[in-house]
Design a protein that fits this description.
Length: about 325
């Protein structure tokens, strides 16, 4: 079974000013003359980590990672102003042009898969290949499954901790109830809501509970950006049209694409990957039989490394 590549450090870091007040943190790793690939993290609002560099052979790829608006090392932290899907798509294209890249592989998981698909549909001529994990089509029913009813029946104990901060009379719409707290002026209520929101996702993200993931996402800095930005997007229908991704598949049908999804993914159930595959039979779909949602489960790592290796070989 394939493992992550050894840890590496960036050979250059950029601070790129986009629409005010946002300044994006961007880093490049690996081979400056290699195949360009951009890593799109999840959330929205989760940010990148050093381990995300390790899905790619550093001798083969020029690896570009960046923290989307309001998260990670991008500034201002947890900022909602000007934070929407169209802006993120524009940021990806701006970074590509800023770095002098003609076209690149786009690698994204969870919300990163959403953003990768939307970017590719907007700029298909700039995408040489797609590697997608944990497909999230970002429709109302997909959000409702995880934040209203569905996943709650699989993890009722964790769900209880998620709903505890919300008054009974507000439980008909948890996204809106959380949005009031996460975008409000009460700092204590905002932080308590952020931790509860992020901990719920972390606890459900892997087949076996990952204490490291729970600790990471429950960290106040990460929890605040992820909860505020995720909830902001979901409270606004992710700033996309209903079924936008599937309705525009014809734009990207020609792009070499590998889809990887855990069989027991509770955050983004595997039916979303199958719906994408039905609309797009040209794409390759691999369902990992012993995995949930996290990119760092052994079977998912193996499939992602295999995908980066095979796509890299085909693009040389």
């Amino acid at each position: 079974m394939k493992k992550l590549y050894p840890a590496i450090k960036p050979y250059v870091k950029h601070s790129i000013a986009v629409e005010k007040p946002h300044v994006l943190y961007v880093e490049e790793c690996g081979n400056p003359s290699g195949i360009p690939v951009v890593f799109l993290h999840g959330g929205p609002g989760a940010g990148c980590s050093p381990s995300h560099r390790c899905f790619f052979d550093p001798d083969v790829y020029r690896i570009v990672l960046f923290d989307q608006r309001g998260c990670g090392l991008s500034k201002p932290h947890a900022e909602l102003k000007g934070n929407n899907t169209s802006a993120l798509i524009a940021d990806i294209e701006y970074i590509r042009d800023y770095l002098g890249i003609e076209n690149w592989v786009v690698f994204g998981g969870s919300w990163g898969s959403t953003l990768a698909l939307l970017y590719a549909e907007a700029y298909p001529e700039r995408v040489s290949g797609l590697i997608l994990r944990g497909i999230f089509l970002c429709r109302t029913k997909d959000v409702q499954w995880f934040y209203q009813e569905g996943a709650s029946r699989i993890f009722p104990d964790y769900w209880q901790d998620f709903i505890d901060p919300i008054a009974e009379k507000q439980r008909g719409d948890f996204v809106q109830a959380y949005y009031q707290r996460l975008s409000g002026d009460d700092e204590l209520a905002r932080m308590a809501a952020a931790k509860a929101w992020s901990k719920w996702e972390a606890r459900c993200a892997s087949l076996r509970l990952s204490g490291d993931l729970v600790s990471h996402l429950a960290d106040p800095h990460t929890a605040l950006s992820m909860a505020r930005i995720e909830c902001h997007y979901f409270a606004h229908d992710s700033f996309i049209e209903p079924n936008q991704i599937l309705d525009n598949i014809d734009n990207i049908r020609h792009i070499p694409t590998i889809i990887i999804h855990g069989r027991y993914d509770v955050v983004c159930p595997v039916d979303q990957a199958f719906e994408l595959k039905r609309a797009w039979p040209e794409a390759a779909l691999q369902v990992v039989p012993d995995a949930g949602h996290s990119a760092f489960e052994p079977g998912i790592i193996d499939a992602l490394i295999t995908a980066t290796q095979s796509l890299g070989a085909s693009l040389k």
